[in-house]
Amino acid sequence: MGTTRNILVTTTDTISGYRIAEYCDVVSANIVNGSSFFSDWKASITDIFGGQSGTYQRKLHKIYEEALRRLKDEAAERGANAIVGLKVDFGEVSGKDVQMFMVSAVGTAVVIERER
Question: What predicted TM-score, i.e. pTM, was given to this entire model?
Answer without folding.
Answer: 0.77
